[in-house]
Amino acid sequence: MHKSLYPSSRNRGFTLIELLVVVGIMAAMLSIAAVGIQNVDKGQATVAGLSQTQALMDEARSLAIGRGTRARLCIHADSSEEERNLSFMVVAYEEIERNAEGEETGRQWRVDSRGSSLPNGVYFHPDLSENASSQVSGLGTFGSNGTGVRFPGDRRSVRNPNYFYYEFNAEGLASEEGQNDPGAAFVLCRGVTGPGASQPRVIGNDVDGFIVWRNGRTSPIRDTSSISQ
Q1: What is the Cα–Cα distance from 77 to 89, expressed in whole angstroms?
Q2: 190 strand-pairing partners
Q3: Which residues of 141-178 are buried (b: 16+ CB within 10 A; e: fewer)?
Q4: Quick check: 116 and 90 in contact, CB under 8 A?
Q5: Interatomic CA distance for residues 227 and 221, integer angstroms
Q6: Lowest mean pLDDT among 6-15, 42-51, 57-66, 165-174
Q7: 7 in any annotated domain
Q8: 156 lies in a domain?
Q9: Cα separation, 95 vs 110, whole angstroms
Q10: pTM above 0.85?
Q11: Which of 5, 104, 152, 185 could cysteine-pair with 132, CB 3.0–4.6 Å?
């Protein structure tokens, strides 16, 4: 019996075309996986920023109750300082100065923390925060252009008037002095800023946030699609 000069189809290896197809499929799958991992990391950065901010909100509320005064979470908003604009936050409280007779002689805001920066590429978004606040009936909004707070690391000799803030009163309520509607929405985004930017430019519609209610408690914004328009 003569053996065939050609190997049977069962023993034949892959052809060059088949190998190229397999390699192409593997490359495509690796690219998809890499994009997915990047998106997870970026989404996690936004979530981490929200957790960080909620902790600072709790710190400000506890400070207000403990000192029996007003306290604020202040967000840096000076576009000339791009590295801190809309991403650097401090907790401050209002100190009431009195004379020997106990009469009030003045008030000023003092920083009670070293400051905290949001994760890289994550920013507070003023317009989206205001938009989210307006969609909840009876909800107030954050403050802006407050009396001067000197942020840690400020290069100025004067107090910085350029910041947004969320305020708590001595009872721990999220209510700014003189404001009728309590509470506010807080929205973060993954984005970019540049010199002179008053708002971050959102990347990939990566937006998330929470509501600060009258009692100072927070709850997540379930549907961010309506506020990101």
Answers
A1: 10
A2: 122
A3: bbbeebeebbbeebeeeeebebbbbbbbbeebbbbbee
A4: yes
A5: 10
A6: 6-15
A7: no
A8: yes
A9: 7
A10: no
A11: 185
User: Checking DSSP bridges between strand 143-144 and strand 184-192, what pairing results, if any?
Assistant: unpaired
Q: Which two tokens stand for residue 46?
A: 């936004």
Considering the chain, what percentage of its residues have pLDDT values greater than 90?
51
Residue type, 193: T
pLDDT digits (tens, 9 = 90+) for 156-211: 655 555 899 999 999 999 998 877 889 999 999 999 998 888 899 999 889 999 99
Residue 28 lies in domain: 18-220
Q: CATH code at 114?
A: 3.55.40.10
In a domain, 163, yes or no: yes
Domain count, the chain: 1
- Residue bearing tokens 């305020």: 167
- Which distant-in-sequence residues (6+ apart) come within 8 Å of 175 by Cβ? 140, 167, 168, 169, 182, 183, 214
Predicted confidence (pLDDT) per residue in 87-112, tens digit: 999 999 998 888 888 887 888 889 99
Q: Looking at this protein, which amino acid is placed at residue 100?
A: A
